[in-house]
Amino acid sequence: MRARLLLGCVLVAVVGCGAPQLKFAPVSGKVTLNGKPLAGASVTFEPVTEPGTTPLPPSSFGKTDQNGEFTLQAVSGENGALVGKHRVLILSKDEQAATGDERRRGERVVEKVPRKYNADSELTFDVPPGGTTEAVFQLTSTP
Questions:
Q1: Are 94 and 109 in contact (CB under 8 A)?
Q2: What digits encode the pLDDT tens for the residues 24-34?
Q3: Where are the domains of the chain?
Q4: Is the CB of residue 60 less than 8 Å from the CB of residue 75?
Q5: Could you give the C-alpha distances from 48 to 8, 37, 63, in angstroms and in order?
Q6: Residues 6+ apart with CB under 8 A from 65
Q7: Topology of 21-139 in CATH?
Protein backbone atom coordinates (compact mmCIF):
# COMPACT_ATOMS: atom_id res chain seq x y z
CA MET A 1 0.00 0.00 0.00
CA ARG A 2 2.81 2.42 0.90
CA ALA A 3 4.62 1.60 -2.33
CA ARG A 4 1.53 2.51 -4.38
CA LEU A 5 1.07 5.75 -2.47
CA LEU A 6 4.74 6.63 -2.97
CA LEU A 7 4.53 5.76 -6.69
CA GLY A 8 1.42 7.93 -7.03
CA CYS A 9 3.18 10.91 -5.41
CA VAL A 10 6.22 10.46 -7.66
CA LEU A 11 4.02 10.39 -10.78
CA VAL A 12 2.18 13.55 -9.73
CA ALA A 13 5.50 15.29 -9.06
CA VAL A 14 6.98 14.24 -12.40
CA VAL A 15 3.91 15.20 -14.42
CA GLY A 16 3.67 18.51 -12.58
CA CYS A 17 7.32 19.34 -13.34
CA GLY A 18 6.91 19.62 -17.11
CA ALA A 19 7.87 22.68 -19.12
CA PRO A 20 6.30 25.84 -17.74
CA GLN A 21 3.18 26.98 -19.58
CA LEU A 22 3.66 30.18 -21.52
CA LYS A 23 1.01 32.80 -20.70
CA PHE A 24 -0.02 35.04 -23.58
CA ALA A 25 -2.15 38.18 -23.30
CA PRO A 26 -3.71 40.35 -26.03
CA VAL A 27 -1.69 43.45 -26.91
CA SER A 28 -2.59 46.34 -29.17
CA GLY A 29 -1.55 49.95 -29.36
CA LYS A 30 -0.37 52.80 -31.53
CA VAL A 31 2.89 54.16 -32.97
CA THR A 32 3.48 57.79 -33.91
CA LEU A 33 6.54 59.46 -35.41
CA ASN A 34 6.91 63.18 -34.71
CA GLY A 35 3.29 63.31 -33.56
CA LYS A 36 1.81 61.66 -36.69
CA PRO A 37 0.54 58.08 -37.02
CA LEU A 38 3.23 55.81 -38.45
CA ALA A 39 1.56 53.59 -41.07
CA GLY A 40 3.14 50.37 -42.33
CA ALA A 41 5.60 49.98 -39.45
CA SER A 42 6.66 46.59 -38.12
CA VAL A 43 6.41 46.32 -34.31
CA THR A 44 8.24 43.46 -32.60
CA PHE A 45 8.12 42.49 -28.92
CA GLU A 46 11.07 40.31 -27.82
CA PRO A 47 10.72 38.76 -24.34
CA VAL A 48 13.50 39.84 -21.97
CA THR A 49 15.13 36.72 -20.51
CA GLU A 50 18.09 35.82 -18.36
CA PRO A 51 21.32 35.31 -20.35
CA GLY A 52 21.68 31.70 -21.48
CA THR A 53 17.94 30.95 -21.38
CA THR A 54 17.01 28.16 -23.77
CA PRO A 55 14.83 27.70 -25.59
CA LEU A 56 14.14 31.35 -26.22
CA PRO A 57 10.48 32.28 -25.71
CA PRO A 58 8.58 33.36 -28.84
CA SER A 59 8.56 36.97 -29.98
CA SER A 60 5.40 38.74 -31.13
CA PHE A 61 4.88 41.08 -34.05
CA GLY A 62 2.36 43.38 -35.65
CA LYS A 63 2.04 45.86 -38.50
CA THR A 64 0.60 49.35 -38.09
CA ASP A 65 -2.39 50.43 -40.14
CA GLN A 66 -3.05 53.91 -41.60
CA ASN A 67 -3.80 55.21 -38.08
CA GLY A 68 -0.57 53.80 -36.65
CA GLU A 69 -2.53 51.14 -34.73
CA PHE A 70 -1.34 47.53 -34.37
CA THR A 71 -2.30 44.21 -32.79
CA LEU A 72 0.35 41.65 -31.85
CA GLN A 73 0.53 37.97 -32.71
CA ALA A 74 3.22 35.58 -31.47
CA VAL A 75 5.45 33.86 -34.02
CA SER A 76 4.17 30.61 -32.50
CA GLY A 77 0.62 31.54 -33.58
CA GLU A 78 -0.99 32.75 -30.34
CA ASN A 79 -2.73 36.12 -30.25
CA GLY A 80 -0.86 38.75 -28.25
CA ALA A 81 2.48 38.51 -26.47
CA LEU A 82 3.94 36.69 -23.50
CA VAL A 83 3.13 38.23 -20.14
CA GLY A 84 6.21 40.06 -18.83
CA LYS A 85 8.92 42.46 -19.94
CA HIS A 86 9.79 42.89 -23.63
CA ARG A 87 12.33 44.78 -25.71
CA VAL A 88 10.43 46.64 -28.45
CA LEU A 89 11.75 47.20 -31.98
CA ILE A 90 9.98 49.40 -34.54
CA LEU A 91 10.94 49.52 -38.22
CA SER A 92 9.38 51.35 -41.15
CA LYS A 93 10.94 51.13 -44.57
CA ASP A 94 10.39 53.94 -47.04
CA GLU A 95 10.66 52.62 -50.59
CA GLN A 96 11.85 55.88 -52.07
CA ALA A 97 15.07 56.43 -53.95
CA ALA A 98 17.93 56.36 -51.47
CA THR A 99 20.69 58.91 -51.45
CA GLY A 100 24.46 58.83 -50.87
CA ASP A 101 25.99 55.46 -49.97
CA GLU A 102 22.69 53.62 -50.34
CA ARG A 103 22.37 54.73 -53.95
CA ARG A 104 25.94 53.64 -54.75
CA ARG A 105 25.14 50.16 -53.38
CA GLY A 106 21.96 50.05 -55.46
CA GLU A 107 19.66 50.17 -52.42
CA ARG A 108 16.30 51.85 -52.82
CA VAL A 109 14.89 51.36 -49.34
CA VAL A 110 15.42 53.83 -46.51
CA GLU A 111 14.54 53.25 -42.83
CA LYS A 112 12.28 56.08 -41.62
CA VAL A 113 12.59 55.19 -37.93
CA PRO A 114 15.85 56.11 -36.13
CA ARG A 115 18.12 53.24 -34.96
CA LYS A 116 17.37 54.12 -31.32
CA TYR A 117 13.97 52.45 -31.85
CA ASN A 118 15.14 49.32 -33.69
CA ALA A 119 18.77 48.14 -34.04
CA ASP A 120 19.82 50.08 -30.91
CA SER A 121 16.41 49.99 -29.21
CA GLU A 122 16.14 50.52 -25.50
CA LEU A 123 12.32 50.65 -25.68
CA THR A 124 10.66 48.23 -23.29
CA PHE A 125 7.09 47.31 -22.48
CA ASP A 126 5.62 45.19 -19.67
CA VAL A 127 2.72 43.04 -20.88
CA PRO A 128 0.24 42.66 -17.99
CA PRO A 129 -1.55 39.32 -17.37
CA GLY A 130 -4.88 40.76 -18.56
CA GLY A 131 -3.42 42.23 -21.75
CA THR A 132 -3.58 45.85 -22.89
CA THR A 133 -4.74 48.22 -25.62
CA GLU A 134 -2.35 50.88 -24.35
CA ALA A 135 0.99 49.89 -25.94
CA VAL A 136 1.65 53.41 -27.21
CA PHE A 137 5.01 54.48 -28.64
CA GLN A 138 5.58 58.16 -29.43
CA LEU A 139 8.76 58.25 -31.53
CA THR A 140 10.75 61.27 -32.62
CA SER A 141 13.29 61.55 -35.43
CA THR A 142 15.56 63.72 -33.29
CA PRO A 143 18.42 62.12 -31.30
A1: yes
A2: 999 999 999 99
A3: 21-139
A4: yes
A5: 37, 27, 21
A6: 39
A7: Immunoglobulin-like (2.60.40)
